[in-house]
Every structure is written in C-alpha cells, then in structure tokens.
Amino acid sequence: MPKSEVQPEFLELLENHTVIQGRDVSFTCVVNHLQSYKVAWMKYDSKAILAINTHMIAQNPRLSVTHNGHNTWKLHVTNVQPNDSGTYMCQVNTDPMRSQTGYMSVVIPPDIMDLDDSADLLTAKENSDLRLRCRATGTPKPVVTWRREDGRNITLRTEHGVQRVKSYEGEQLHLAGILRQEMGSYLCIASNGVPPTVSKRYYVNVRFKPLIKVSNQLVAAPANSDVVLHCYVESWPKALNTWYRDDGMKLLSDEKHDLAEVPLNDYAYRLKLTISRLNRDDFGSYTCSAENLLGKTEGTIRLQEMHLAKTTSVPIRHNSEFIDRYGSKKQMERKSKHHGFGREGGSLSKNSENMGHATPVLRRNSLNALTDVTVKKSKVSSYPAPAPAPAHSTPTQLSVQNSVMSLQHSRLNCVGLMFAFLVIVISSS
C-alpha cells in the first residue's frame, strides 16, 4: 500500500470485565479508517481465532459478533462459564498487525457442599466433643465463618483455657466439652465478595439426664382457694413428666387438677400443677417427676393449710383536753354529755360532799365575802371547776347543794359572833 494512505487506528481501549457465572458480556472494538482491512477476534491464551469481521470461526453457539455499519464491532459472550475467563484480542490485519486486548474474569458465587459425615441435626453427650464441618466452593475461594443463630457467643475450649467469641473462621468448628447451654443453631456462612452470600444451619443437641429444681418446697394456702405448684425441669431428650401425691397416686388433668408445661428454652421448661378449691384432703406432699433415656429425677413440694386470723373490733375512747384554773393541761374521758364534770360522770354524786373535795363558787348575795373565805379554807379539789351553766338552763344539782351549804355556814358564823359579843359584855360587867 502507498505510504501516503491513512492507517486504521483504535479510538477506544478494549475494556476488562468481571462477570458472574451465567451472565452475558460484550467486548467493544472501535476502529477508524479501516478501509479494506479486516477486524478479527481471537482468544489470546489459546491463540484460537474466534471470528473475522462478522463471520464466526469458533464453533461455540454462545459467541457472536455484531457491526454497526460504521466503525464499531462487538464480541458477545452469553451464559458466561468459568472456562471463558482469559484475555481477548481485537486485531486489524495491517502490516505490522495492530491489536488491543481486554481481560474477562468469571467469578462464581459461593456454594456450600453437602458432606456425607455432616448432617443438619447433630447430637452429642454433655461434656463430650463435637466437630462441625462446612466446605464451600466458589471463585474466588470463599471464606467460611461460624456464628450462633441467636447471636450468643461461641465457646471454644483448648488446653490454653476457655475463649468465647462472636464468630469463628474456618471450615471446621470444634466444640470440646460441650455443655447444655451451648446447644442450639449454628450457622456456617460462606462469602467471597460475589453475591449472594450463602449459609447453612446446623442444629446441635446435647444429651443429659433430667434435672429438677423446686424453688418453694413449702407452700401454704387457705382452704377453698386455688394454688399453683411449680417445678423447673432441664432435660434432653425431652423427659416424660408426671405429678404424684404422697400416697403414690398419679395425677391427671381434670376439674380438680390442671397440669401444664411452659417452655423456657431449647432444653428447659416449667411444670405447673393447679389445684382448685382446696379442701382438707388436698393438703400434703406432691412430687414432680421427669424421666428420659439417661435417667430419672424427682422434686417434692409440701402443701399445708393456711389459717387466717379473725379480726376483732376495739372500742374507740374519746378524750377531751382542758386547762384547770392553775394553768395545767389535763385529759378526761368523755363518757356522756351532762352539765358539769364529776368523778363518775357528768354530775357530782351526793356522796361527793364527804370526799373532802369542793369547788369554790362565788354567790351574788350579802354573804359572798364570808362564803368565799370559808370555801377557800376547805381542801382544794383536784378536779377542775365546772363550766358555768348557760343563762337559760335550769340550776344543776351542784348549784342547789352549794346554795344550801353557803346558807348553813352563814347562820353558824352569825351565832358565833353573837356568842363572842355576850362573852365580852359579861366580862366587862
């Protein structure tokens, strides 16, 4: 060809592709000034020519070439497979040959293999060892991680001690000296950056003899009431549970007794015995029993009658407080409402005169002064002075008695004065 002729040139680089297995992909080759030259596609790794222009050379139905009628050629690969990975070349048959290359990487999502020696349901005896195996395939090679489905830690026991971790990386998970608390679902998770991430569930069971705990071994309840007895049970495999009376009679659910089981977790549950309308025959001992292939355990509860105390009424005593004429506070029981105050009630009795207690009262008459002096000489009463009666009330018994006493004292005083006067007159004569 003449040297003055314009040579073909590539306008764009051939791109690289990372393709998930089963997807479709295309390489685009753009050439200007092609003239009478031809575009060819080849697999560089194998040196195999795939197509020239739009004519397919390779006998592969998943490969095809299209041309837009101008300067663009495309190589299409459908349902990409792992062996499609490699370097692809777009070349023009000039002299020397011109070409450009692009790389296709086929990735495969992870997949977990089914192993003959591993199953979805795994069982081990308590304090023994258990190994979980999980093998995954994919491109690139997947990373296998173990986690507990409930989010709890995984317990790893080695000669160096006990370690608790959220996750463990590796195809094998060794559970040494496994305990009942470690039973449950474990997840094997495989990922390699290619979606989707996959997981497999392994359910681990731990076999052990039943265990019974009784929190309240003595229960008291009154007659004619309902009572509930509780037994806490741990067992796997699940135990056969039974309630017995102290005479050995097995209890069944009926109108009198209600038997129930409340699950707490994978291996623990609570037994409930409800006894309705307690009577004298219901009091005594009750035994809860749990039995599986590894053994039998029992727990006993003593039910006794509760005697309720009878309530009695206490009379209420009302106290009144007052201040006597000496300014001291005193309290007196108020038993009835009468005029005046006394030792036995609201009024003074007739015998109160002989007790040597009197209350000074001033009278509005000509003998007030003499009466007041006489009364003051008497023994001071320890009782307070009664409140004055209202103007419209009738005279009380105390007022009448005081009036009579005042009149008698006045007469005696007059006789005494007259006698003294006579003695003086006789003496002077």
TrEMBL record:
The record's section on InterPro entries has: Ig-like_dom, Ig-like_dom_sf, Ig-like_fold, Ig_I-set, Ig_sub, Ig_sub2, Neural/epithelial_adhesion
Query: Which keywords describe this protein according to UniProt?
Result: Cell membrane, Disulfide bond, Glycoprotein, Immunoglobulin domain, Membrane, Repeat, Signal
Q: Where is this chain primarily localised?
A: membrane
Q: Where is the Ig-like domain?
A: 8-105, 110-199, 210-307
Q: Which domain of life is it from?
A: Eukaryota
Q: Where in the cell is it found?
A: Cell membrane
Q: What is this protein called?
A: Lachesin
